[in-house]
Amino acid sequence: MKTVLTLLLSYLLVSPALAQNSYENAMKEQIQAMQQIRTLEESQAVSNAFLRIAEVKNEEWLPFYYAAYVQTNAAFRFEVNKDQYLDQAMELAKKAGGLSPNNSEITALEGFILMGKVSVDPANRGQSLSPQVMQLYGKAIAQNRENPRATTLMAQMELGMAQFFGSGPEKACGLARVGLELFEKEASKIDDNYLMPTWGKTQAEQVASQCQ
User: Does residue 37 contact residue 13 with C-beta atoms inside 8 Å?
Assistant: First the structure.
């Protein structure tokens, strides 16, 4: 009897650790797959995989976050109904935000999604939505000044507005330089078990390339 109780206790103690390892392994697998997306079909498969993880680990914000990010990228990259994809992405980002309030990564992603909405029809949406995008990026920076994605996305938006209005890129360039410095700091934290967002360095480099 004592042996049975010992085995049962051991199982109860080990099971949560196994479940956590399973979650982390599933997330790492999909994050790697996300970085190799080449087609719309692959994008849909990865987004759906993150949502399946979210169903099992519905207390975790990262699966919803990554599903929203994949949806947003699909709207930028592929021939899809962009508004529909971006609206779905925003719903997922809001779910992530409900699980992790005042999260700089989520706030920045919401700005990125809204920036996608602007890009669908800049002539008609720019005036009303651009201030909201900038407000979200400013809020994300205030929530975490070490978040390179918040600064980089603001740099992108600043560059787009400068090009639209025919003004200089100085402000965007300054933000891009800060973003690249923050990416260097972030790189020191990344290891094989790192699940947090790391994307965005390419965007910072693209903005910085306009500053030569």
Answer: no
Calpha distance 129→118 (Å, rounded):
6
Hey, what amino acid is at 70? V
Quick one: the chain helix, strand, coil %, rounded to 5? 80, 0, 20
Span 188-198, pLDDT tens digits: 989 878 999 99
DSSP annotation of 44 reads H
DSSP state of 100: S
Note whether 202 and 176 are within 8 A (CB): no
Tens digit of each residue's pLDDT (9 = 90 or more) over 163-209: 888 888 999 999 999 999 999 999 998 987 899 999 999 999 999 99
Q: Provide the token pair at 207.
A: 């903005």
Tell me how crowded residue 49 is: count the other CB atoms within 10 A of its CB: 20
* φ, ψ (nearest 5 deg) of residue 199: -70, 160
Q: Classify 56 as helix, strand or coil.
A: helix
Its pTM stands at 0.89
Tokens of 29: 């697998």
Residue 198 is given by DSSP the state -
* 28-65 pLDDT tens trace: 999 999 999 999 999 999 999 999 999 999 999 999 99
